[in-house]
Amino acid sequence: VSSADAEAILRRLRDRGGRATKTRRATIEVLLNARRVHLTSEEIIKRVQLEHPDVAESTVYRQLAALEDLGVVEHVHLGHGPSTYHLSGEAHQHLVCQRCGKLVEVPDSEFSGLANRIETAYGFHIRPRHFAILGECRSCARTAARGRAAKAD
Ligand SMILES: [Zn+2]
Ligand SMILES: [Zn+2]
Ligand SMILES: [Zn+2]
Asked: Residue 23 and residue 7: Cα distance in Å, rounded?
């Protein structure tokens, strides 16, 4: 990860009136380094503290909330566990298999047709990104179908 990425995000943060503190910078770097891995706040704290052992847990929590308020970071609920964090620029929709936990990431644009139809029909603007969409992956659906077929025999 280039520090240019972190700098660009910190610049966006300053444009929105936020200050680039050490903890904020460290938190953003952890999220940049995680790439596609979904980190909970606990995991982010552990990683920040590896580099900066003097940073308190509560400070990282506070900074995550502040970064969310500034629109730089957002969280998503992937299932029953704790929420996970993303940089806003990398946000996307999540599909999670309820049987095996497999995670599939899809671009927001996949939902734009549905979003438009719901907006027109119900006057409601959906924001599906905040929660994962639960269902069944292809291989679990096949296994389940085989199980049903075996019972029917
Ligand atoms: Zn939430
Ligand atoms: Zn599955
Ligand atoms: Zn994701």
From this structure: 14
Looking at per-residue pLDDT, the higher value among 132 and 149 belongs to 132
For strands 39-40 and 93-97, give the pairing. unpaired
Task: Let me know: does 75 contact 85? Beta carbons within 8 Å.
Answer: yes
CB contact at 8 A, 60 and 27:
yes
The ligand that comes nearest to the alpha carbon of residue 76 is 1
- For residue 87, how far is its CA from the centre of ligand 3 (angstroms)? 10
Q: What is the pTM of this model?
A: 0.78
Instruction: Please identify every residue whose CB atom is under 5 Å from ligand 2, which is an ion.
Output: 97, 99-100, 102, 137, 140
Give the mean pLDDT of the chain.
89
Task: Round to whole Å and give the CA distance between 91 and 43.
Answer: 19
Angle between helix 57-69 and 41-51 (nearest 10): 120
Q: Which amino acid is at 110?
A: E
Neighbours of ion ligand 3 (CB under 5 A): 105
pLDDT of residue 16: 82
pLDDT digits (tens, 9 = 90+) for 29-39: 999 888 778 89
